[in-house]
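User: I'm new to structure prediction. If I give you an amino acid sequence, what do you actually give back? Let's try with this one:
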Amino acid sequence: MKKECVAMLLAGGQGSRLYVLTGNMAKPAVPFGGKFRIIDFPLSNCTNSGIDTVGVLTQYRPLELNSYIGSGQPWELDRMSGGVHILPPYQSATGAVWYKGTANAIYQNRGFVDLYDPEYVLVLSGDHIYKMDYSDMLRRHKEAGAACTISVMEVPWEEASRFGIMSVDEQDRITEFAEKPREPKSNLASMGIYIFTWSKLKAYLTADEADPNSDNDFGKNIIPAMLSAGETMAAYRFEGYWKDVGTLDSLWDANMDMLSPGSGLNLLDKKWPIYGRTPNCPPTFVGPEGDIGNSAVAKGCGILGEVKNSVLSYNTQVGQGASVCYSVVMPGAVIEEGAVVQYAIIGERCRVGRGAQVGTPPETAKNPDDWSIAVLGPDTVIAPGEVVPAKALLDRHHGEVEA
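Assistant: Good question. You get back a string of structure tokens that encode the predicted 3D arrangement of the chain. For your 403 residues, that looks like this:
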């Protein structure tokens, strides 16, 4: 069945900057916000935007992500025609090839796209937290008669050198693109969200694949090639909340943004719901000495201690006399009696022993560069009374991981 627009969601990255959190899972499968995972955001955006055919391109440790997506039912993407499809690298007549880059990942799956004969292809990343109506972006693409439309947002000038930067004319057509420029000419940053006219993109992907010197990357190769060829390239300005959660600090920041009314990250908006596959859990129990303040607490939790300015995922436990402050606690973690967790990310199924301490407030550091959040990877066990300092990254073998 012909589709006007098919989405291709790049979810194969290792997420190396999330260190211990992604040792055994792909970055888009990392829990977020108490009841979600990162990939819920682009999938929900597709559903809410009327895009019902999504290819999810997986590669690095995809088991948990594949299991989580399943048939796509939570996002209403379990359809006879279209729906969500997991697309790992596969063996062809010429052999098996890992995805060499973002562009190569789409190139290897051009047959999947052609099944639906779309006019347009939406290319998404699986590691961003945001709510966007892609139908507005597609409308902009059509009106501009563009071969490619790139979603952009204004960033502070002092941060512009960290992004791919677009220069535009008075019609917001892209005239120049620079990847992380030292002296940026603009503060319009690419969000890594693209709409292409499929017939155009297919031709550029084919040419890129034939170039042995190419990195097979959209930002490094495809976008510059289209610009230099004089293709019409449009910018789509986005003004809502958006955060790349590819680092531990940004993941922690985005979770804290949930708790701040002025951040723009509202996950209770019924007009634009974020869907996810949350297991059936009993109601959360708050004991007589339980104290919760300015926190997001999912179902299935047992709170006997103090929880302040924190995000607790489903089935987490906070023991009597324990304190959790300015922290993110992922599914199934246990904070035992008298333990103190502050400014930390506690991975899935971790156990923090009685009287242990994980993390310290930033004001305790003599030098700001010596402080950061403490992070425990999934299944890490902290012994009773043990102290885990700020900036520590521990995996389940209790080994310190180099940042």
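You can read the tokens as a compact description of the fold. Here is one thing that stands out. The first strand starts at residue 5 and ends at 10.
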